Amino acid sequence: MNYPKLPEDCKSMLCKHLTPESFEELKNKKTANGFTLEQAINSGVVNIDSGIGVYAGDKESYTLFDKLFDPIIKDYHGFGKEDKHTSNLNPDDLNAPNPDPDGEFIVSTRIRVGRNMDNMPLGPAISKEQRDKVEASVVEGLSTLDGELKGDYFPLLGMSKEIQDDLIKDHFLFKEGDRFLDAVGLNKNWPEGRGIYHNSDKTFLVWVNEEDQLRIISMQQGGDIKEVFSRLVSAIKSIETKVPFSYSEHLGYITSCPTNLGTAMRASVHIALPKLAEDMEAFKTITDKYYLQIRGIHGEHSESEGGVYDISNLRRLGITEVEAVQDMYDGVVALIKAEKELS
Ligand code: ADP
Ligand code: DAR
Predict the structure, then answer these.
(1) Which CATH class is domain 13-77?
(2) pLDDT digits over 243-269, tens only?
(3) Pick the CATH number of 91-342 from 3.40.640.10, 3.40.50.720, 3.30.590.10, 3.40.50.300
């Protein structure tokens, strides 16, 4: 393997941090699952518009390819090699009375975490047999859930395109064919081994074997962020008694993309901010101040529609789950205040 030809104007973390020296040191290494540097960086090589461009194939990738992952994690998360991640999933520690009780601004709230099974490769390095075993183990664990979390599993294999398109349109199901995931092998054997579990109200959902092996999701209309967080916490605590999660003291919950390490949590609102949308500089001054990320209403790589934006926490590693949700909450309060002042 030769040092990849990357354009001068490439801005990804791969381009920034894969030096000829680190490349020479890492290029012939393989993890116990046979995952190589070439596989780890392929997404960023073929998608030069990547933000990161690198994925892990297993927990070992983060230590074996540390000369590449450590500078990326330091740059993206401000988190050093000796730092330790801590977790806090206690909703009592969250100060978040509904910031929009009249429903003027917040359309809906969604909080998700990524999780991967302990002692299994991550999606980029998993075999079809292992992925099918992950699906079977997760679905068996989900089948024991009760009360509000009780639901059904719907494999993608055999799901009608109409049902699939409706679930995606209504923000419940993952899109397919993401080119960034494709380039690192995360779409192999699609749609086999993939599916969605949800309760009857679709306020609790679990994606199986998309970018991570589980995406555990709590969501509902309106801005009761604390209620959404509480439901998610009870789901995480129920599932982890049945499905062992991959975790490290240093990096927290292990995920295929380094941006999701730590809490692996994205807490978001779909919020109508038509006035702020006319002054994106003022809008981004607030989102920067509160460590927020702006996405479109169909998630990553989508656009806002009708002045409605997906606003979520940017920080995931080196802060706790409560702090991640507090980041989003405090930023949303500031955005609503600014929108009211402009109105
Ligand atoms: P993820 O959040 O899992 O990293 P995306 O950003 O692609 O992935 O979002 C996944 C889906 O969740 C998309 O359909 C998106 O519209 C939906 N979504 C995200 N936040 C909200 C929200 N607050 N309310 C409703 N749907 C949401
Ligand atoms: N698209 C990839 C990943 C960025 C973070 N989003 C994730 N993990 N879904 C990139 O390198 O831009």
Answers:
(1) mainly alpha
(2) 999 999 999 999 999 999 999 999 999
(3) 3.30.590.10
